[in-house]
User: What shape does this take?
Amino acid sequence: MLLTTFDALGEFDRITRRAFAPASAAAAIRMDAIRRPQEIELRFDLPGIDAGSLEVTVDRGVLSVTAQRSQEFGEDEKPFIRQRFMGSYAHRVRLSESVNADAIEASYEGGVLTVRVPLQEKAQPRKVEVRAAAAVQAPSTEAHGTEAEAAGTEGSGTEESTEVAA
Assistant: This one.
């Protein structure tokens, strides 16, 4: 007895992608992006990729990740179920002007490529200090009341005087 699997929709999807994709099309790489106060961390899933085939480049504000997975079968081996992608992988990320492209670092461990993109200081969140404004002294109301009485007029008590020093 020979064990076989058949996924009709998966097989249809694979055939249509091969038939209608451009000849130079590369498989997409799954990515997560995490924002931190001083950096952005990009994590790319690349299981089974040889670290020597990974290439991370930055050119004119675009970070490009490419990788290659080659055939793993010997001469006397013939696969009868093939669901893993062999060939080229590629992913491009447009970088903002607020990143420090010269300080980008990448590491590969456990099938995950981690790219750290530091932010420029001007793009990092910062706390703005709120200072108390200097108190402006208003003229004494007692002096005004005395002047009003001397002039023979009554004050209504609803007028407000504001003085702005230049």
User: Anything to note?
Assistant: The two ends are 96 Å apart (CA to CA). The longest helix spans residues 8-20. The helical segments are 8-20, 141-151. DSSP finds two helices and eight strands in the chain.
